[in-house]
Amino acid sequence: MDASAPAGPATGKTPRKAATASFMGSAVEYYDFFIFGSAAALIFPRVFFPDADAQASVMSLATFGFAYIARPVGAVILGHFGDRVGRQKVLMFTLLLMGGSTFLIGCLPDFSTIGWWAPVLLVLCRLMQGLSAAGEQAGASSMTLEHAPDNRRSFFTSWTLTGTQGGQILAALVFIPVVALPDDIKYGIGWRIPFWLSAVVVLVTYFIRRSLHETPTFTEAKERNEIVKLPVGVLLKDHWRDVLRVICCAFIAAVSTVYGTLAIKYGTEVGNVNADITLWLVVAGNVFALFTQPLFGRLADRIGRRPVFIYGAVSSAAIMPFYLLSMESGNTLLQFALSVAVFSFGYAAANAVWPSFYGEMFSAKVRFSGLAIGTQLGFLMAGFAPSIVAAIGGLEPGGWAVTSIFTGVICAIAAVSALTARETAHVPTAELGLDLDRAAAPVRPATA
Q: Residue 57: phi, psi to the nearest 5?
């Protein structure tokens, strides 16, 4: 990571260390999160919903979305503690919660053993994953932003989301040999192994993350006694417009779940693409995003957050129809090219920029809460996008059109919302959100 030409108080190794810890933590969290998505598309319909017949795929994809129900609840709880006790402590908790719930999924009995209790337990574990994910990106983004130099915030915070790409790559690579197994092994013990492996990567990341200190911004606020008792109350009273703005901008995340969950299901069911090929398509898009997202982050430090984010939304909507159509073409090379185009050179722009773009809308005393609540409410759209589009015909022949229209609408909402935001690329970290705080402060009468 390039840390040249720092500005502001954050210099030396700390910004790189914070970005690395955020990358690793996000990679672990989203390895866990995305192996569930792969399993929901390729494994769970047969293991947990064999009696659901034609609705098995829709019901299985719906379990993927249940985590997004828990996310707003987790955002309020974890956002409160993130702004009250600190970013680092909450991030340690989210890491252990995600790892534990993922390991438990690998231990669940299937439908043939306990009937409908099996999907019920699956949903409960998925809800725990959602609670954890609610605080991970908000906490990691807040920590990295507050450790970064003023003129490199977007670059350093982009590594938080680049970590999610690392997690998705690892999840796909682990699932590729699983789907190649004979059915009796694949649907028996085979699918459980990726979930059990979560325990290993959680331990590794735990030791990396625990060495990172609390951010100077939060520490200074605590020393000045500026920590508020109820951050959510202050957020909703003084920053509600930015919360709404983040919610609408966060709709863009639906592109990721359409790309990584629904599209691979469309490819296997409609395009007759081999399951392992669909997973390699996801790997290819995410591998290139490892390189393009930091570049988009650097670009946003130069020209601003808004233009890069809006480009990401518009290009995602424009390329998605061609990617989905390629699933029916039988041309593997074309499928890989469009997979990389839509994800690495389209969606990656918005994905790289949003941690700084959203986080800079809020002051330090409500940043964790604002990021967590705004994004998690917006991510509800992402969570249920696969099951919604599947239910209205997205997995039927010609379903690419339904999916493309859906993607276009959510991208348009995100782009228009971004247009209404303030540009904060060149505002010092210490002054972010203070204009709203000052406007909300009560006017004190002059004293003689």
A: -65, -45
DSSP string, 241-274: HHHHHHHHHGGGGHHHHIIIIIHHHHHHHTS---
The tokens of 266 are what?
Answer: 């469309």
Nearest Cα residue to 110 out of 191, 178, 34, 182: 191
**Using CA atoms, how far apart are residues 421 and 313, in angstroms rounded to an integer?**
15
- The Cα 38–Cα 281 span in angstroms is 13
Six token digits for residue 198: 């979560």
Site of tokens 């290009």:
315
Summarize pLDDT for 266-317 with one digit per residue, the tens. 888 888 888 788 888 888 998 999 999 999 999 999 999 999 999 999 999 9
∠ at Cα 233 (228, 239), nearest 5°? Answer: 95
Helix and strand numbers, DSSP H then E, in the chain: 22, 0
- Tell me which residue has tokens 């534990």: 100
Q: Tell me the two tokens of residue 177.
A: 């040999």
Helix (H) or strand (E) holding 161: helix 153-179
309 neighbors 250 (Cβ within 8 angstroms): no
Looking at 3.40.190.10, 2.60.40.10, 3.40.50.720, 1.20.1250.20, the CATH number of the domain 231-420 comes to 1.20.1250.20
Looking at domain 15-224, does it have CATH number 1.20.1250.20?
Answer: yes
CA 133 from chain centre, in angstroms, equals: 8
What's the mean per-residue pLDDT of the chain? 85
Two tokens at 407? 């993607």
Domain-by-domain residue ranges, the chain? 15-224, 231-420
